[in-house]
Amino acid sequence: MKRLAPYLILILATLWTVSSWRPPSYSSDEFDLSSFKRIPVLVGGRIKPMDTVARNSLLIIRGKQTVRRADGGRLPAARWLADLLFDPSKADEHPVFAVANQEVLGMFGWPQADKRYCTYAELKPHIPKIEEEGKLASGTEAVNRTPFQAAIFNLRNSLALYQRIRNSVHQEDTVDFTKEIETYAKAVADGARGLADGGSPLDGERMSLLRTAVARYESQADFAYLLMVAPPAGGGEGDWLSTGAALMRVKSPENMPTPVRALAMMGDAYRADDHATFAKASLDYANWLNFVHPEWAGRTSFELRFNQMEPFYHSMVLYVAAFLLACLSWLFRPRGLRQTAFLLLILAFAVHSFGMLARMYIQGRPPVTNLYSSAIFVGWGAALLGIILERFHRDGIGAATSGMVGFITLIVSHHLGTSGDTLEMMQAVLDSNFWLATHVVVITAGYSAMFLAGFLGIAYVLLGVFTRLLKPARAKRLTDMVYGITCFAILFSFVGTVLGGIWADQSWGRFWGWDPKENGALLIVIWCAMLLHARWAGYIRQRGIMAMAIFGNAITAFSWFGVNMLGVGLHTYGFMDKAFPWLVGFVVVQMLVIVLSRLPLHLWRSPIRINGGNTAVAV
Amino acid sequence: MKMFCRMLDALCSLRLTMVCLAAAFILVFAGTLAQVRFGLYFVQEAYFQSWIVWWQAAGGNFRIPVFPGGHAIGAMLLVNLVAAHIRMFAWTWEKVGTQLTHFGLIVMLAGGLATDMLSVESYMRIREGEARNYSEDKVDMELAVVELGDSEFEQVTAVPGARLAAGGTIDHDSLPFRLAVRGFYPNSRLQMITQQGAAVPAASMGTGQRVAVKSMPRTTKLDERDVMSAVLEIIPRKGAELGTWLVSDSLAAAQQFEVGGRRFTIQLRPMRHYKPYSIKLLEFTHETYPGTQIPKNFSSKVMLDDPGLNENRQVLIYMNHPLRYRGETYYQSGYDRDNSGTVLQVVRNPSWQTPYIACLLVSLGLIYQFTLHLARFVRRNKVSPAP
Questions:
Q1: Which of A518, A519, A544, A522 is CA-nearest to residue A531?
Q2: How many inter-chain contacts (A to B, CB under 8 Å) are there?
Q3: Is residue A55 part of a domain?
Q4: How high is the pLDDT of residue A420?
Q5: Nearest CB to A537 within list B14, B48, B289
Q6: Are B121 and A510 an interchain contact pair (Cβ–Cβ within 8 Å)?
Q7: For A3-30, what is the mean pLDDT?
Q8: Statement to judge: residues A415 and A444 lie in one domain
Q9: How confident is the model at residue A345 (pLDDT cuts 50, 70, 90)?
Q10: Residues in CB range of A597: below 8 A, 6 or more apart
Q11: Chain B residues with CB inside 8 Å of A534's CB?
C-alpha cells in the first residue's frame, strides 16, 4: 500500500486535471451557451471563439473573467457578452466597470470608497465629462499620468469598448431584428427592380425607412468591435464583415448572409427569453460554420476547451503541491513523499506543456510572443531543468525548487494576462516566426536557468542557516548543480543575446544599440561570466557561488521586467507601472537572503564547516 | 625586465578579467538607468562610445572623470584576452572549447570597437515616383549655401552644424560674404507670430521676420529628434548690409538672397551623404491585420540604378529583409502618413559580419565545453544513491 500511495495520488491529481476538459452542462431553465461560446468571430486581427472575446473584454473592463451581480450571483463572461450583444438594456444593469480611484468617484459626486464596480446605466449621465477628462489625459504620456488621469483614461477606454461591443450585432434599441432585416432586404430588392424598370423606385414611406436603415447600418459598420459575419465558403480572413457592413451589401432577401440571419434569430430568441429556440439557433449556426469553415471552427472549438480547462491554473496548484511535498520529505524523510512530489511535478509539467502547446497551435506561433507568454515559458524551462536535476540527484531539492519557480512564474503570468487578449497579433517587425523561435525562446530559456540557479542558491542558504539538513555532501551537490546550471545560463543568454543582435542587424541595420533590453541581457551574460571566472580563480567557494547566483535572480528580474518599466527603448512592449513595487520587493528579498548567507558559519545550524575534520575548507 | 614580466603577468591575469567584467557590469547598469533622464543617444556617446565617463556639475564648466567609458573597458578586456590567449595557449582536447570561446570574444570586441568607430547611419526619404542619390544623416546637420546659376550643376558650400555651434564668424573663399552666428539653438521650436504678437521676430530678413524661435531642452526620446536652429548675419565683403536670417531644421524651404548680383539660397538641413547610384521608389505598401490598425508588413518596391556598374534592377525592401548594396544596407524604417512615401535607414558598417563569426565561434566553444562537462557529470552520476 505504502508503495502504491504515490501512484494513487498521481492518478487522483490527473483525474482532477482532466475532468476540467469536459464542457459545463446547462439545465433547461437557463440559456444553453455551449454553441454560442464556440462561434468564431474576428476581433483584433484574429479569429477566436465568442468565449475568448467575452473573457478578454471583461478582463479589460472589469479586471476579472466573471461578473458578480448586485444580488451576489455570478455571471460567466459568455453570459455577460450574450446580454450585451443581444439584450443591451439588461447588460447595462450589470456592475462591470471597475472604478477604484477616489477622485473619479468624487467627480461623479458619489460617496467615496463604498463602491468598486458600477453599471453602465449609472455611468451614462457622466459620459460627456468622462470623455472630456479622458481626452485631456490621453494627451499626457502613459508614464507621466497622475493616478486620476490613468483611472479616467482607462474608464474612457472601457466605455468605448463596451459601446462598440453593444452595437456589434445590431443597434441597441432593436426589438425584432429578423423582421427588420427582412423588411429592409425586400425594400432594397423592390427599389432596385423599380429603378431597373425606369419608374419611381419606392413610395415615400418605404424610401424613408430604407434611408434610416442604411444610416443605422453604416454607423454600425464603423463602430462594430466584433466582425461576426463569416464569409461564404472559400473566403479568407480579410473577408469577414460586421453585420452593418454585411447588411449594406445585401441586394435581396435571398442573398441575406446566413450568419446575419442566424444572429438575428439568436438575438430575437434571447430577448424573448426563449431558451429552446436560442439553443437551436446557435447550434444550427455553429454546425453551419463547422461545415463551411472547418479549419476555423476546429480551432475555435479547441480554444474554447483550452479556456475551460485553465491548464496554467491547474499546473500552478500542482507545482505548489510538489513544492510542499518535497519540503515535507526532508522533515519526515519518507521516500514516498519525495516520490509523490516528483510524480506531481511531472504531471504539473505535462499540463504546463500542454497549455503552452495549445497556445502555439491556436496562435500559430513559437511559444514566446509577449511578456505574458515569456513568464509561462520561463516557468516551463525551469521546471524541465528541475526535473532533470531531480532525476539525477533524487533528494527533493530539484523538485522543491522547480515547483517554486513554476508556481511563481505562473502567478506572474496570471497577473500579466489582465490586459486583454494574450494571443494578440504581432507587430510588423516582430512578424517573423524564425526569430521569435530562436532569439526569443533561447533568451527566455536563459532566464529560466538563471532563476533555477538563484532559487537553488536560496534553498542552500535557507536550509543551511535554519535547518540541520545541509550536510556537506548535499552542499557539494547543490554547488555542482548551481555551477552546471550557470554554465547553461551563460550559453543560452549569450547565444540568445547575439541572435537578438543579428535580428536587429537584419531589421534596423545595427547589431547593438545599447537599448535597455539589450543591456539587460548583457548584464546577465557579464554576471554569469564573473561567477564562472571567480570560481575558476578561486575567489569564491560554495557560499560565494550561492550569493552570486542569488544576485543573479535580481539581475534577471531587472532584465526581464525592470527595463520595461524604464519607459525608454525599443522593447517597451509591456509597460506595467503596477508591477514596480513587486519588482522592488523581489530584489529586496534577494538582498536579504544574500545578507543571510554572509552570516558567520557558527550561526548556521547546518554543519557545513565540518569537512573531513578540516574547518571551512570548501565553504 | 622583471618589471616587464610583472606587467605582462598582470595583463594576462584573471584578476584583471574580473575587474574589467565588474567595471563593465557597473557601466552597463548605470548607462541603462541614465537613459531615463538623458536619452539613448546621449548615453550612448557619453557612457558606451567614450573612453572616460565625465561628471559635470549642472551649469558648471569643469568636469571630472568618474568612470572608465565603454571603449576603455572594451579595449582593456581585449588586451587582457589577447594576452591571456597568447600566454596560456595550449592545444589539448580539454581546452578547445575555452580557446574557441575566448577567440570568438576577441573577434566580437574588436568588431564592436570597429563598428563604433566606422559605422555611419543615415536616412533616405523618398516619395513614390521620386529618385534619390543621397541619404540624410541621422544626427548631424549642415548649413547649405547654394549658388544658383545657369549650369546644370549647383555650387554647394556646406558648413557642418557643429561649426555653427562653435559660434563666431564663418569665412569661406568661395563666398562673397561672411556668416556671423548671432544665435544658436541645439533644439528649438518655431512659432508663427500672429497679429497681437508679443513675441520677438527671430531675424530681420526672410522667414525669420514672421517667426519667433524658442529654445528647448534637448530631447531624450528615441522617436524624436532635436530641431536645430540658428540666426545668422550675412555680411557681404562689399556693399550693403543684408541683416540677420533664421535657418532651422523645421523650415522646409531654402531662403533666397543676392550679393553682388549673384543669387544664393541658404538652408539648414540634415547632412547629406551622396551615392554614385540612385534609388527610385516605385511603390510603398502598408498592410494591416484584417479588422484592425495593427501593422502586418511594410514594404518598398524600389528601382536601383547604378550607371557606373551597369546595374538597373528592381528590389523589394521589407521588414527583416534589407537591401545590401556597395557596402551599405537599406532597411525599411518608416513611411509618410499618406502611405505614398517611404523612409529607408541607410547603414554603412564595414565590420557588420564580425558578430556573425564571433557568435558562431563562441557558441561552438561553449557547447563543446559544457557538453564535455555534462558527459563527465552523467558518467559519474550514473548510479545515484538515494539519500
A1: A544
A2: 172
A3: no
A4: 65
A5: B14
A6: yes
A7: 83
A8: no
A9: very high
A10: A457, A460, A461, A465, A543, A546, A547, A550
A11: 18
